[in-house]
């Protein structure tokens, strides 16, 4: 765990988001091996990517979605850190991003369409909140 005394809330949420990404990567690998077989997973994938079924496909897509949003969160938090733009809004935004990404996995895996979209929107709103603190500090 990252020490509280050496980092902002935003940096701690970034650290936790990296851990979440690693957990999602592990889940995606496990469902891939389980759904496609160890021989396929260890091979060169020349034959393409066989479908995983509903649950496995959702886990894999949730991870890909994390990868689509994470670079924006990373950039926003690093900008906030470099410009020392730590505000209650940026701290709350970082927490909203992290916790919405945590919620996204089970919501997507369960196949709850509108709630999944709301959780995704919350994660984007969190990023915007962090960026807004950077813009307001300049």
What's the Cα radius of gyration? 17 Å
What share of residues is helical? over 70%
Strand content: under 5%
Q: What is the straight-line distance between the termini?
A: 31 Å
Average pLDDT, all residues: 90
Number of helices: 5
Major pleated sheet:
none
What is the subunit organization of this protein?
single chain
Topology as a string of helices (H) and strands (E): HHHHH
Low-confidence parts, pLDDT < 50 over ≥5 residues?
Answer: none
What structural class do you assign from the helix and strand content?
mainly alpha
Shape: elongated
Number of strands: 0
Could you characterize the architecture of this molecule?
By secondary structure, the protein is mostly helical. It has helices at 9-36, 38-42, 53-82, 88-110, 113-137. It is elongated and about 50 Å long.
SSE inventory with pairings:
Elements: H1 9-36, H2 38-42, H3 53-82, H4 88-110, H5 113-137
Keywords:
single chain; mainly alpha; 138 residues
Summarize the structure.
This protein has 138 residues and is mostly helical.
């Amino acid at each position: 765990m990252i020490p509280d005394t050496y980092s902002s809330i935003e940096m701690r949420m970034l650290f936790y988001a990296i851990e979440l990404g690693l957990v999602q990567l592990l889940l995606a690998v496990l469902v891939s091996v389980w759904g496609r077989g160890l021989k396929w997973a260890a091979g060169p994938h020349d034959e393409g990517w066989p479908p995983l079924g509903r649950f496995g496909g959702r886990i894999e897509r949730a991870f890909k979605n994390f990868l689509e949003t994470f670079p924006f969160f990373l950039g926003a938090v690093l900008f906030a850190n470099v410009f020392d733009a730590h505000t209650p809004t940026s701290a709350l935004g970082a927490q909203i991003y992290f916790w919405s990404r945590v919620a996204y996995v089970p919501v997507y895996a369960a196949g709850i369409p509108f709630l999944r979209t709301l959780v995704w929107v919350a994660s984007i709103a969190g990023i915007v909140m962090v960026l807004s603190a950077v813009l307001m500090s300049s």
